[in-house]
Amino acid sequence: MKDIKKIKEDFIKESSQVETIQGLNELRVRYLGKKGIVTDGLRRLSELPREERPKFGKVLNELKRFIESEIKSLQQQLESEEAKKRVLSESIDITLPGRYIPPGKRHPVTQVLDEIVNTFVSMGFEVEEGPEVELDYYNFEALNIPKDHPAREMQDTFYVKPSSVDNDSTTESDIVLRTHTSPVQIRGMKKRTPPFRFIAPGKVYRCDADVSHTPMFHQVEGLMVGENITFSHLKGVLELFIHCLFGPETPVKFRPSYFPFTEPSTEVDIGCILCSGEGCRVCKGTGWLEVLGAGMVHPKVFEAVGYDTEKYQGFAFGMGVERLTMLKYKIDDIRLFFENDVRFLRQF
Ligand code: PHE
Q1: CATH 3.30.930.10, domain 108-345, yes or no
Q2: Using the 8-state DSSP alphabet, how is residue 339 labeled?
Q3: Per-domain residue ranges for the chain?
Q4: Which residues form the pocket of ligand 1, taking CB atoms under 6 Å from any ligand atom?
C-alpha cells in the first residue's frame, strides 16, 4: 500500500513539471504503457495471496483511473496553450496585395443576343421559349413544310431516337433537334389569343459545318399578330431594330424571297458594314449583306393553330445571332466563337 501511495505522489510531482505534449506522452508511457509502473503493479497482483488481491486490485485500478483523467485534462490544457502560442506568433501582413482574380465577361454572342432581346422588349415584345428537342410537327408540318417538301433539304437536321418509354406511335423521324426557332411561333400562338407580339431566342441545330456554319447556332424569332397588321408594320419594326443594332445611318433593303410559312416573304439586307456598299469579298461585290428572313404569316400556319384567317394578320421574322455578331464586330470565321480562346474572347 505504501508503494502505491508513493507511485501516486511521484506521479503528481512529475505531472506538475510537464510543459509540453511530448513530455506528457513520455509521462503516460512511464505510468500506463505496456511496461509502465501501474501496468506492472497490476500484473504483479497475481504474486499476492488470493484473498489480498481484490483489495490491492481496487486501489491500483483507482490509481490508474486517476492518472488517466489527470493526463487527459493536462493534455487539453497543453493543447490550448500551444494553439494560443501559435496564433500569437503568426501575425498577418495586411499590406500584402491580394491575389488578382480576372473579371469574367459575357460571350460576344450572348452580348449581341441580349442587345437584340432588349431592343424588342423596348418595343413591347414578350420573350417566349420553346424546346430544342422538338417534334417534327412543330418544326416542319405546322409551318407548312410537309414531309416531302423541298424546303426540308435546306434544313437537314439531327433526328432523335425516341426512348422506349415514349408513346409507341412516336417513330425515329418524329423527333428532331429544331432547325430554327420558328416552331416557337406555333407553340406561342397556341397559348395566346391575338393581339400579341413576342420574340423567341434560342439555340438551333443543322447538319452544317464550315467558315460560316456551325452545327449549333442561335436565332431570334419574332411574331406579331393582330387585326390589321400589315407589311408596313413589318418594315417599320425591322428597320428600327436594324438601326438600333447597327446605327441609324445603316441602309436597309427588303428583297422578295420565299419561306413556306410566310406569304409574301422577304429577306432583309443591310448596306455592307465592311466596304460601306462599294463591294468586297464579304458581300460578294454586291454591297449588301443578308441579315434576316421575314414575311406575313401564311394562312396555313394560322389554320394549324385554329386562328380565324379573315380576322387576323401577322408578320414573323427570324435572324441568326452569330451572323449578326460577325457583322457587328467584323469577325470572319464563325468557329472562333466556339473555340473558347481567351485571346479572341477578351476583345469584346
Ligand atoms: N425560320 C427561318 C430560317 O431559319 C427564318 C424566318 C423566320 C423566315 C420567320 C420567315 C419568318 O431560315
Answers
A1: yes
A2: S
A3: 2-89, 108-345
A4: 180, 182, 221, 259, 262, 293-295, 316-318
